[in-house]
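In this supplementary section we document a worked example of the pipeline. Step one takes a protein sequence of length 75 as its only input; no multiple sequence alignment statistics are reported here. Step two produces a three-dimensional model, which step three serialises into structure tokens for compact storage. The input and output of this example are shown verbatim.
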Amino acid sequence: MGKGEGEKVKHAYLIIAHKCDRTFKTLLRLLDHGQNDIFIHMDQKNKSFDPGSLVLEKSHIYYPDKRIKVNWGGV
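The serialised model returned by step three reads:
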């Protein structure tokens, strides 16, 4: 059963990242929409990451309770 005309569909985005750089912030800005929920896991090895520094106008941002170290490409 599909959504009727005029009904809003929610989208969820899961982002796994290792740094909070300009590219990452640009992606968040482009995804910022009232119908989007954004789930972010920032690699635990990024000690300088401050979740409070990411503020969006329309989307909700969610973070896991616990961050883990991620191996990128087996490294």
